[in-house]
């Protein structure tokens, strides 16, 4: 699985961190998403898919 994020699109809502905190974080200064792990392991795949689905502005892209 390959994950990318669009920080310009992110509105700092935080759902991705709640869904997959091993893969996503938020910048301290403005809450914009930070990608911690662009190649998450298989056991994190469902959480990452959930994060992408929950993002209100579709700023998370997942390639299987
Ligand atoms: S869920 Fe989307 S908008 Fe919210 S912090 Fe994560 S990437 Fe940004």
From TrEMBL:
Highest taxon, organism lineage: Bacteria
Keyword Iron: yes
Key word Transmembrane helix present: no
Keywords in alphabetical order: 3Fe-4S, Electron transport, Iron, Iron-sulfur, Metal-binding, Transport
Pfam family, one: Fer4_13
Cofactor field: [3Fe-4S] cluster
Function, in words: Ferredoxins are iron-sulfur proteins that transfer electrons in a wide variety of metabolic reactions.
Protein name: Ferredoxin
Organism: Streptoalloteichus tenebrarius (strain ATCC 17920 / DSM 40477 / JCM 4838 / CBS 697.72 / NBRC 16177 / NCIMB 11028 / NRRL B-12390 / A12253. 1 / ISP 5477)
